[in-house]
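Structure tokens please, single chain.
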Amino acid sequence: MSVISALTLSPKKRRCGLFFRVHPQNIKSDEVVAFLRGLFRHLRGPIVLLWDRGLIHRGKAVKTLLAHRQRVQEEWFPAYAPELNPAEYVWAQSKRKLANGCPYGTAELNLMVRASLADIDSSQKLLRSCLFASTLFKPKELRSINYA
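Here you go.
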């Protein structure tokens, strides 16, 4: 099972969001393209896409999709710098929620993973903590985010 996600921050830094998809197999460039298309339908305006340097993010299908999206600006995390990536902290939160779980099969594991990520998505505090932990943003930059 593999999961792809995007942690979002509104232009005025008031709301965070978490978009994700769970796949039964390893994610390849085609799944990244499908995920991005869905994400682009939900987000309006300019998008700054921050990625790690995974091969699936650099595939031909992804490059082709992004070449036609004028509102998307790509930025890359430095190599071997997971501490800068807020998504890594989402995974840490999810793993905490899943710790000591004992699913009876992949269907139950799928439900548990989805539930843990939905819990994170429903908490502005947890999402914000992932941004703070990453050191990508300075605390002053995120002060305007509402706690509602």
